[in-house]
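In this section we walk through a basic example: taking a raw amino acid sequence and producing a predicted 3D structure, encoded as discrete structure tokens. The instruction is simple. Fold the sequence below.
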Amino acid sequence: MSWRAPSEVFPVSAERRVVLSLWADFTEDLRLTADNQENASDADLWLLNSCTVKNPAEDHFRNSIKKAQEENKKIVLAGCVPQAQPRQDYLKGLSIIGVQQIDRVVEVVEETIKGHSVRLLGQKKNNGKRLGGARLDLPKIRKNPLIEIISINTGCLNACTYCKTKHARGNLASYPIDELVERAKQSFQEGVCEIWLTSEDTGAYGRDIGTSLPALLWKLVEVIPEGAMLRLGMTNPPYISEHLEEMAKILNHPRVYAFLHIPVQSASDTVLMEMKREYCVADFKRVVDFLKEKVPGITLATDIICGFPGETDQDFQETVKLVEEYKFPSLFINQFYPRPGTPAAKMAQVPAQVKKQRTKDLSRVFHSYNPYDHKIGERQQVLVTEESFDSKFYVAHNRFYEQVLVPKNPTFMGKMIEVDIYESGKHFMKGQPVSDAKVYTPSINKPLAKGEVSGLTEEFRNRLGNHLSSVPHASAAVRQDPASSRMAPRLQRLHQDCALRVSVGLALCALLLAFLVKVYN
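The resulting token sequence is shown next.
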């Protein structure tokens, strides 16, 4: 069935006003639905996100689709799997929201509920130039009201032979610095005390728009309140090496965690060449050694792939030696999975049993050392932001983004506190709060309630009246209303707006045609 998105019918400025309002309402509807429909079987529609990095993740995605179909659910698919290969048999007839089109989920969900199959897979562009993706100022619900996650760019500049994500995300596209700074400022106004910067490669940020990662970071630290913290995401060695001096200065800043995730993947130059990683082991070591010298105590995390095609025992032993030498406190060990459509999938594969054994061997090396034992007895300042998985502790992080477990005192959440380290494990330390120490609140405003909609401007709050603010106190009857019924009037207004604009446009065209006929006759 043919369907045209509203943005193809009326001007962008009008679409922005209407869709942002609908997005705000839709986000609140999702919150209400989540409150009342913890069981997925109760939902009318399943929106399934996906990851294409490993085979098991895609297998889980495929199984979720099968389950939804067995339960006769409407389905909308998102993420890198359908973006990279939308023509796969098991995706036929299903609606897809592309990785750069998530701001249009309202339209896709509504049309799918009507029985239409909608696919929005295009890239966002401005004057022919690819944009970073969906707008940063869209309303959303934070998983943790204290932590804001900001994607600074999408795509990358590499062409790694094992990577499927590039097929979905494409080439590098960075968000402008001013938009990222505004998003950070808005987050702090909403009580956030920690910001995470993410992307496929933060080190490459800005190369497509004539700027750089250090330029962005210096602007961001200007707006971070005292006591709040900024955490950097993953960066590949080639691009961060161009900014080492500036990055060391930034990582020494009191409001930036001294933490960096730099994947090495292998310590064999032969394997790195087959991966097309665009650096050698000596380059990686130079980056690590420089940062360890200039940023004392820095936490450096890395990734390693075991069993890449052609990896010999000698290649693997070089990787083992690297881990033994640097004793990375955070190490992500991945068994190689050939992803369909990638060059590495066509290479001669290492036997499955060998890959498994190498993964076990490297894991054994990683667990042979304890990175935090020497910190017992230290007094540290930590920022408390989460609850532990077992619900026994609060989770805090110190200056080096090392995990510190503290007692579950509600007054600590979202605060910077001082603790004495009395115990350590492989992945954590435990801290006892100092009795006479001051508990510092970095947030400039009270954090939003869990599940509360973030990013609503005054314009939209005024348009929605007191509806959003009164939702937590709504009656049980209102809470049980399905999200689709609450969205219907707003979508009807959107369709009416579209129809009106089309009618006006056709009328103007008719008048112009009549005028031309009269002139030329």
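Looking at the output, two observations stand out. Confidence is low (pLDDT under 50) at residues 1-37, 468-500, 515-521. The longest strand covers residues 379-387. In the next section we compare this with other chains.
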